[in-house]
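Researcher: Next entry in the queue.
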Amino acid sequence: MKPKVLILCTANSARSQMAEGLLRHLAGDRFEVYSAGTKPSIVNPFAIQVMAQRGIDISNHQSKHLDQYRSQQFDYVITVCDHAAETCPIFPGKAKRIHWSFPDPAAVNGDDATILQSFIHVRDDLERTLAKWIESLTN
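Model: Structure for this entry, 139 residues:
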């Protein structure tokens, strides 16, 4: 049975969505991967755009509330923003909690090029962090 991973952030619109797509891409079919938010909204178009640059399509992803996963057991619950880490409920079972703090690229002000660059930076940081984490699980 594959380990189940839930990735959380506040809006489930950028960081957790990109992390979900990246983890599926980097790990192949080694995990069951889900993402959710404490206050879900919509998947940010900039997140979709920067993931497409990596050949990863998240355009069909939906922003989901973490409540829909509360009764499920996960092996890992990863928070990618400080607010989600502070408000994340306890999940049943043996879930290992991991927290990585990434800045919210959607909170950046400026023109489209500036905002796009913030999404690229967070995507690349997420990718490096996830790759290191996957590697640590296999060592």
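Model: The domain at 4-138 is CATH 3.40.50.2300 (Rossmann fold).
Researcher: Noted, moving on.
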